[in-house]
């Protein structure tokens, strides 16, 4: 079939057949369809959208364009968790061990961070010796022995997505909700888990800053997962300010450990328990409230922390650094950012905090950028906290002192003071099933 006919059909708002969609993806991955024609198709989808059925077929075709991971060698129900990205989001390091401690298997492939958002793989690689590259046999073995394993995306996973994402990036179609949904879910389907939990962030530090767009994306992804035969739930969660108090790779590992010890900040603990509870619910561990109680119990008794340590040891990491987090990398230079006037913290812009952390060396501008694992920010004050003039709001860490001025300037702009507290922050806005 001719690509021009498929483009014209979608341009005119017609519903594409399964044969047309699968043929298009197969030939594009085989370099039989040029970029300029696929660009026209991406723009047609941007304006005309896709039905749930079209989108599910597109996602499945993208997933099957490469390796489909078979997790049948792992005993039990496998639950995957995906976050759309944010600042200070170390929930995988907390929720996944909680789920594993409750008997759920978590075989997760994660990505690296880019721009102002952090990546789970970067955080884990801040643990001395930790390996995020395992072959399939070792990956499965670690999950069977410890209940969980988190590795980098490897192999030929959804190559159609890699090609299409690069194309969308230069054709102003990145913001298309159907194409975002297909991109995320194609990798989730290819990764092979039985169930999928989606954490869709919204707010200044999220890819989807608007609540309505976040809901639309969540609904699309849940429908794709359901139609593809995977039990799928999405939570729409708050990313107006950084999650927790620590931003930066080794710093976030340290805060995840403190949270697993029961000493974590309220926002991070609340969200991590809720994510873990939904993972347990997907794995048929009981009603949601029962799952919340199970999650809280293994957090309180230290079982979840032991699961994280077991995974780290199995993947070459130093478990002592998770017992004594002072052994984790820490950049040698520090500088405080102090309040210039007194008042309540009325806002702490997540995106600008993430940008400041990146300027210190904790993030990457391109996929080849080298990250400083010990760089980042510790926030001493969050929204609703009272601060006196001259009192520290944050401490910045870097390995290069010359990076401080720009990072300090950006962080200062992230802080807004007010005359009264704003009230308790809502962490989970909606649950989409």
TrEMBL record:
<dbReference type="Pfam" id="PF02885">
    <property type="entry name" value="Glycos_trans_3N"/>
</dbReference>
<feature type="domain" description="Pyrimidine nucleoside phosphorylase C-terminal">
    <location>
        <begin position="344"/>
        <end position="418"/>
    </location>
</feature>
<dbReference type="GO" id="GO:0006206">
    <property type="term" value="P:pyrimidine nucleobase metabolic process"/>
</dbReference>
<dbReference type="GO" id="GO:0005829">
    <property type="term" value="C:cytosol"/>
</dbReference>
<dbReference type="Pfam" id="PF07831">
    <property type="entry name" value="PYNP_C"/>
</dbReference>
<dbReference type="GO" id="GO:0006213">
    <property type="term" value="P:pyrimidine nucleoside metabolic process"/>
</dbReference>
<comment type="subunit">
    <text>Homodimer.</text>
</comment>
<dbReference type="InterPro" id="IPR000312">
    <property type="entry name" value="Glycosyl_Trfase_fam3"/>
</dbReference>
<dbReference type="GO" id="GO:0004645">
    <property type="term" value="F:1,4-alpha-oligoglucan phosphorylase activity"/>
</dbReference>
<dbReference type="InterPro" id="IPR036320">
    <property type="entry name" value="Glycosyl_Trfase_fam3_N_dom_sf"/>
</dbReference>
<comment type="function">
    <text>Catalyzes phosphorolysis of the pyrimidine nucleosides uridine, thymidine and 2'-deoxyuridine with the formation of the corresponding pyrimidine base and ribose-1-phosphate.</text>
</comment>
<dbReference type="InterPro" id="IPR036566">
    <property type="entry name" value="PYNP-like_C_sf"/>
</dbReference>
<dbReference type="InterPro" id="IPR000053">
    <property type="entry name" value="Thymidine/pyrmidine_PPase"/>
</dbReference>
<dbReference type="Pfam" id="PF00591">
    <property type="entry name" value="Glycos_transf_3"/>
</dbReference>
<dbReference type="InterPro" id="IPR018090">
    <property type="entry name" value="Pyrmidine_PPas_bac/euk"/>
</dbReference>
<dbReference type="GO" id="GO:0009032">
    <property type="term" value="F:thymidine phosphorylase activity"/>
</dbReference>
<dbReference type="InterPro" id="IPR035902">
    <property type="entry name" value="Nuc_phospho_transferase"/>
</dbReference>
<comment type="similarity">
    <text>Belongs to the thymidine/pyrimidine-nucleoside phosphorylase family.</text>
</comment>
<protein>
    <recommendedName>
        <fullName>Pyrimidine-nucleoside phosphorylase</fullName>
        <ecNumber>2.4.2.2</ecNumber>
    </recommendedName>
</protein>
<dbReference type="InterPro" id="IPR013102">
    <property type="entry name" value="PYNP_C"/>
</dbReference>
<keyword id="KW-0808">Transferase</keyword>
<dbReference type="InterPro" id="IPR017459">
    <property type="entry name" value="Glycosyl_Trfase_fam3_N_dom"/>
</dbReference>
<keyword id="KW-0328">Glycosyltransferase</keyword>
């Amino acid at each position: 079939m001719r690509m021009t006919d498929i483009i014209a059909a979608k341009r005119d708002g017609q519903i594409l057949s399964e044969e047309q969609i699968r043929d298009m993806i197969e030939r594009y991955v085989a370099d039989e369809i040029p970029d300029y024609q696929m660009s026209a198709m991406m723009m047609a989808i941007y304006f005309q959208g896709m039905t749930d059925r079209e989108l599910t077929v597109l996602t499945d075709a993208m997933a099957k364009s490469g390796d489909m991971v078979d997790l049948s060698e792992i005993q039990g129900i496998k639950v995957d968790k995906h976050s759309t990205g944010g600042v200070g989001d170390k929930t995988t390091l907390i929720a996944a061990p909680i789920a594993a401690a409750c008997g759920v298997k978590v075989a997760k492939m994660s990505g690296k961070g880019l721009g102002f958002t952090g990546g789970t793989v970067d955080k884990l690689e801040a643990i001395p010796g930790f390996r995020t590259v395992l072959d399939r046999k070792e990956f499965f073995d670690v999950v069977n022995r410890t209940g969980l394993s988190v590795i980098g995306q490897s192999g030929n996973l959804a190559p159609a997505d890699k090609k299409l994402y690069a194309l969308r990036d230069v054709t102003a179609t990145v913001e298309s909700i159907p194409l975002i949904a297909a991109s995320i879910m194609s990798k989730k389907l290819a990764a092979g888990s039985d169930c999928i939990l989606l954490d869709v962030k919204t707010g200044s530090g999220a890819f989807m800053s608007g609540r309505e767009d976040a809901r639309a994306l969540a609904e699309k992804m849940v429908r794709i997962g359901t139609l593809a035969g995977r039990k799928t739930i999405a939570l729409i969660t708050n990313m107006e300010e950084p999650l927790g108090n620590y931003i930066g790779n080794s710093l976030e590992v340290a805060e995840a450990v403190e949270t697993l010890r029961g000493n974590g900040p309220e926002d991070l603990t609340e969200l991590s328990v809720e994510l873990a509870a939904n993972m347990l619910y997907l794995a048929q561990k009981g009603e949601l409230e029962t799952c919340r109680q199970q999650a809280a119990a293994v957090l309180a008794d230290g079982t979840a922390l032991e699961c994280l340590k077991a995974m780290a040891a199995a993947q070459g990491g130093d478990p002592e650094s998770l017992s004594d987090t002072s052994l984790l990398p820490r950049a040698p230079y520090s500088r405080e950012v102090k309040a210039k006037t007194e008042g309540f913290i009325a806002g702490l812009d997540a995106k600008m905090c993430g940008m400041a952390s990146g300027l210190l060396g904790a993030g990457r501008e391109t996929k080849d950028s080298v990250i400083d694992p010990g760089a980042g920010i510790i926030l001493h004050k969050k929204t609703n906290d009272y601060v006196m003039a001259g009192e520290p709001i944050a401490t910045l860490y870097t390995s290069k002192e010359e990076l401080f001025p720009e990072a300090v300037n950006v962080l200062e702009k992230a802080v807004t003071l007010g005359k009264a507290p704003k009230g308790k922050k809502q962490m989970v806005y909606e649950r989409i099933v």
